């Protein structure tokens, strides 16, 4: 678990419970996207299924270690590998349950992992529930959810619940810095907060074109404000995907509103603090709030299939937003 240092405690906790025969057969994990839960469960499963495991690590040499590494272990049921669809239907659940009541093929434990238990249909959840009430012998379930309020109560009542949060910023930044030496602290902190403090999502964001696009967009805003030249800004706006621009503007407006209200430290675009202060000082709260609401409404329009001129609405939104940048 050296790869994700913020998960070592959870890894050791579950391993120790298994060694003491006190690990509950049904484990429900509430955790946000991008903190490494799939990797955590994968590492735990490697250890549990290993034929020659030591105190805290698998041997990496036995047939079980080989099979799970190749994503082909017959006693490790990862629904990500099994289901081709976004929603998990009752037929998949029935097939898994049928196999769980058979003897394990490697003679050890059987592990079932749902990377998103909320993706089960109601019929699938009800079918699964019957098995969770009285799990087959030597079988462990790991159920991950990003929103535990959406998990049906009967599943929650039969589970031990683990709450895993995004790591503290200093831990995440330390991990990100080792992988991104070209970025300074403010850039890393900005990327981390834009990705809701999820280090793995942040790393993907930094390595993709998204962070570069965001920085170009911010420079264009600076040019527009300082030089009264909107050509760069319009060039970026018309070149980028509307969803990307909309998300960037929503985050930016939200930061300005936050600064206007309480000047707290939850601002996402921390590398643009001077710009945020400048715009906050020239706009009333209601102007910013109404502008943000209109952008959120436009986000909803983008996700619909209504036969309306979305491009025209987008341009109108941009003109309204650019008024908030005037000094």
Separation of termini? 51 Å
The ordered H/E elements are: HEHHEHHEHEHEHHHHHHHHH
Radius of gyration from CA coordinates: 24 Å
**Top CATH class of the largest domain:** Alpha Beta
Query: Which structural category do the helix and sheet elements fall into?
Result: alpha/beta
CATH topology of the largest domain: Rossmann fold
**Ranges with pLDDT <50 over ≥5 residues?**
none
Strand order of the largest sheet: 2-3-4-1-5
CATH architecture of the largest domain: 3-Layer(aba) Sandwich
Q: How helical, in percent, are the residues? A: 55-70%
Domain tally: 2
Secondary structure: number of strands: 5
How large is the share of residues in beta strands? 5-15%
Pfam families: DNA_pol3_delta2, DNApol3-delta_C
GO cellular component, one term: DNA polymerase III complex
Enzyme class: transferase
Function: DNA polymerase III is a complex, multichain enzyme responsible for most of the replicative synthesis in bacteria. This DNA polymerase also exhibits 3' to 5' exonuclease activity.
